[in-house]
Target: CCA-adding enzyme
Amino acid sequence: LPVQFQAALPILETIQAAGFEAYFVGGSVRDTLLGLPIHDVDIASSAYPQEIKALFQKTVDTGIEHGTVMVLDHGQGYEITTFRTESTYQDFRRPDKVEFVRSLEEDLKRRDLTINALAMDAQGQIVDLFHGLEDLDAQVIRAVGDASERFHEDALRMMRAVRFASQLDFSLEAETAQAIAVNAPLLEKIAVERIHVEWIKLMLGKNPARGLASLVATKLYQFCPSFAKQAPVFDRLTQLELQLDDEAQVWTLLAYLMDLDVKQTNMLLRQWKSSKDLMGQVVTALTALRAITQNSVDQFVLYATGPKGLATASQVAVQLGFKIDLKQLQASYAALPIKSKKDLAVDGGILIKEAGIKPGPGLGKILAFLEKEVLLGRLLNEKTTLLAALATK
Ligand code: ATP
Ligand code: MG
Model:
């Protein structure tokens, strides 16, 4: 048993001693069997939330209406979810109401993929009702039960299937792929935020080309926000051997391939319900990427982009087949006389007090002029030099 599971064993044992069943479930079991690192240990139990709360000193109601209680143990949190079925699906979305049940089988049946429907007990015994172990072995992504039915219940599962194909570098089983092709339009019923999570995990997976190939083959991408008419972009994407490190890189690449300007890029990111912070990062990196690919990187581009944006743009440029010397770019950046307006040896206050300049729009223009001259190395960044330059102007 991996250490994370060992640490959680007393919790399983406490639940069992009270006469209930408890198992490790979901991603942690799958990843353990694959020898991958696990992030969070999820536990499923026949005990109802109130019964769990009665068993432990410290609990938090993280999702009690869905049957989830978090148990705090030695500074660790463990989510314990009551066995449940999701019987009342409406509009192809995950239901709001869940029904608690006492049987593990019912709980595993409502899970999305066979490799995600494995349970492990305190002794390390695996419960595998849907040949999930075989599929892990054969590296196959397969829906639990009738794929088409399962995608009707919750259309996000199609996106998850493709995401796991990329993340684990597994292949999509034929019937599951076929069911995605048939039901792809149902994805439009799903909240953008949920699609977003899967899309980014797909793009940052072990083999994005594989997930992308499935997105294209099933046409599922056409039902993602703003991708409907992007067939050429997706064809291009599938041909790249992508190795991206973060979300900013994903969107910078997309915006570049979609040939978007700043306004359109912001619109794309808004449609995907991205944060303002991410929008800023992407727009900055995109501008730098264009300069890099057009060989027009100068002091102004370096200055406006900053080290983080340069790293993002360079990584994306490499994906597109450009030969980039990031070290060189970073050295040029480091050699800039100033890194921001704050570094300028004068500011508005000094100009008003010591150069007799009046507050107003003219002041901003003068500061911008000094900033430019310093950046180009035409003026030293010293107060006396800058004030003298203004006096002779
Ligand atoms: P990750 O490593 O990305 O967290 P995970 O498999 O743990 O992968 P979660 O989203 O954390 O994914 O979900 C935990 C488990 O809940 C899954 O393994 C699966 O059994 C089940 N599950 C999650 N989403 C769905 C869904 N939309 N439909 C059915 N079962 C789901
Ligand atoms: Mg998880």
About this structure: The CA atoms of residues 168 and 206 lie 6 Å apart. DSSP finds 19 helices and eleven strands in the chain.
